[in-house]
Specification:
Blueprint: E1 6-10, H1 14-26, E2 31-35, H2 47-50, H3 66-71, E3 74-77, E4 82-86, E5 91-94, E6 99-101, E7 104-107, E8 111-113, E9 126-127, H4 132-141, E10 147-151, H5 155-166, E11 170-175, H6 187-199, E12 203-206, E13 210-214, E14 221-224, E15 229-231, E16 234-237, E17 241-243, H7 246-250, E18 259-261, E19 272-274, E20 279-281, H8 289-303, E21 316-321, E22 324-330, E23 338-343, E24 348-354, E25 357-364, H9 370-379, H10 393-407
Helix pairs in contact: 1-8, 9-10
Bound molecules: flavin-adenine dinucleotide (FAD).
């Protein structure tokens, strides 16, 4: 092992915490530093939509307590933005002029919210939530009775809408696609969710782009592409992410949408790794919490010389808003060979099957039972010999679980 080992991680999100943990698990003596632009300990970013009106500064929102960093001798330098990297001399330099030497470098710079590119988007009253500051600023700007227009009906937009409604604000969700949460839901489950949302006071405009944000001096409304006007005091948009790859570009790493990494989370430069929302693996930036944890862990392990490879997790969305717990897992599109549907008035589930194995599932009104579906997809349990047309989903899942256990005996 090299002497003077200093692992430096740029960015203090979830990927960096799990990378630091993996490094410490394998290397008890090395120095580990996380250098992050945000002022605090790494926190559960996903709480910013699900728990917008809870106290986002309480300790339990942190991913690990301060004690954990001390015990594991992980040096966290908050409020510090890295502005340049020298890969020849292996140093990073921060905005305040500090130079830090590394022997292995990990970029966990995450992503920024995609900017809304329409007239009026820069007006006060237009918000997008990526970090705790954004959430604090938005909450401080609210007045009782304010109306909120939410642009983007993906998971984050719908969860944010529910937070506002629970806090007593009037909400309209505007989504350009023909249905909400189009990556997670099929037509039927999206329609059921929409009914629930309407029943709990949300106004929903589907298949509608926003043409402009109107107002003089501050946002006063949005104008939709069909010319209709929605007066509101605030606009909150959530229309995707842009990976933070400026530093990677500066040092000539191969980038496309994100920083290109192989299955070891290694970039195109020696000693430099990337993980989380800034990393592009096999043509895609995952942009998901679970992937950031896994990629951070894999990167950390490889940085210490313990080979581990990244296998993209089956995408799983656990959702619980508008009194509707649901999960969506794997590939849930109409490209499957066959699907099995379970439906009563209030309950809906659907299994998507391709090539004799389950490739995806949507279960509405029950988010607790996702594990058997995840296992079935990950293990590729075959459904041979089962009568898919006349079996119910619970029967199929019982059989799949049995086969999965048998496979592991
Ligand atoms: C409101 C919200 C809700 C979400 N909900 C879900 C969900 O339900 N499920 C899900 O799977 N995912 C969700 N996500 C996405 C999830 O949060 C991300 O995938 C995850 O946080 C990525 O972690 P990361 O460590 O890669 O990056 P980030 O969490 O983005 O952290 C990167 C950190 O690096 C810092 N940084 C950037 N550049 C520099 C620099 N030059 N120097 C120093 N520091 C720098 C940033 O300030 C930031 O603190 C949500 C995201 C948001 C914003």
């Amino acid at each position: 092992m090299e002497k003077n080992r200093h692992y430096v991680i740029v960015g203090s999100g979830v990927a960096s915490v799990y990378a630091a943990k993996a490094i410490r698990d394998h290397d008890l003596d090395a120095e580990i530093s996380i250098v992050g632009a945000e002022p605090s300990f790494p926190y559960h970013r996903i709480k910013l939509s699900k728990g917008l009106f809870t106290d986002l500064h309480q300790e339990k929102v942190s991913i690990k307590k301060e004690k954990w960093f001390v015990q594991n001798k992980i040096n966290l330098q908050a409020n510090t933005t890295v502005t340049s990297i020298d890969t020849v001399n292996r140093t990073v330099t921060s905005a305040d002029g500090q130079m830090i030497a590394y022997h292995k470098l990990l970029l966990c710079t995450g992503a920024t919210n995609r900017k809304l590119d329409i007239a009026g988007a820069a007006l006060p009253g237009v918000h997008s939530i990526r970090d705790r500051n954004d959430a604090d600023r938005l909450k401080a700007a609210l007045q009782p009775g304010d109306r909120i227009a939410i642009i983007g009906g993906g998971v984050q937009g719908v969860e944010t809408a529910w937070s506002f409604i629970e806090a007593g604000y009037a909400v309209t969700i505007i989504e350009a696609a023909p249905r909400l949460m189009i990556r997670q839901l099929d037509e039927r489950s999206a329609a059921l969710l929409e009914q629930r949302m309407l029943g709990r006071g949300a106004d929903i405009r589907l298949g509608q782009g926003v043409a402009t944000i109107t107002g003089s001096g501050r946002a006063e409304g949005v104008e939709l592409q069909d010319g209709s006007q929605l007066p509101c005091e605030h606009v909150v948009y959530s229309i995707g992410i842009v990976p933070n790859i400026t530093l990677a570009r500066q040092i000539g790493l191969e980038v496309r949408n994100g920083i290109l990494v192989d299955e070891y989370m290694q970039t195109s430069a020696a000693h430099v790794y990337a993980a989380g929302d800034n990393a592009e693996f096999e043509g895609r930036v995952d942009g998901l919490w679970g992937s950031a944890i896994e990629q951070g862990t894999i990167a950390g392990s490889n940085m210490t010389g313990n080979p581990a490879t990244y296998k993209r997790p089956v995408p799983l969305t656990l959702f619980n808003a508008f009194d509707t717990p649901l999960f969506s897992i794997g590939q849930v599109d109409e490209q499957c060979d066959i699907s099995v549907t379970g439906l009563t008035e209030e309950y809906y589930s659907r299994l998507f099957i391709k090539g004799g194995v389950i490739c995806g599932a949507i279960v509405f009104d029950n988010a607790a039972a996702s594990l058997p579906y995840k296992t079935a997809i990950e293990q590729g349990i075959r459904l041979d010999g089962l009568d898919l047309q006349s079996s119910s989903i619970p029967d199929l899942m019982a059989e799949v679980t049995k086969r999965s256990q048998y496979q592991h005996q």
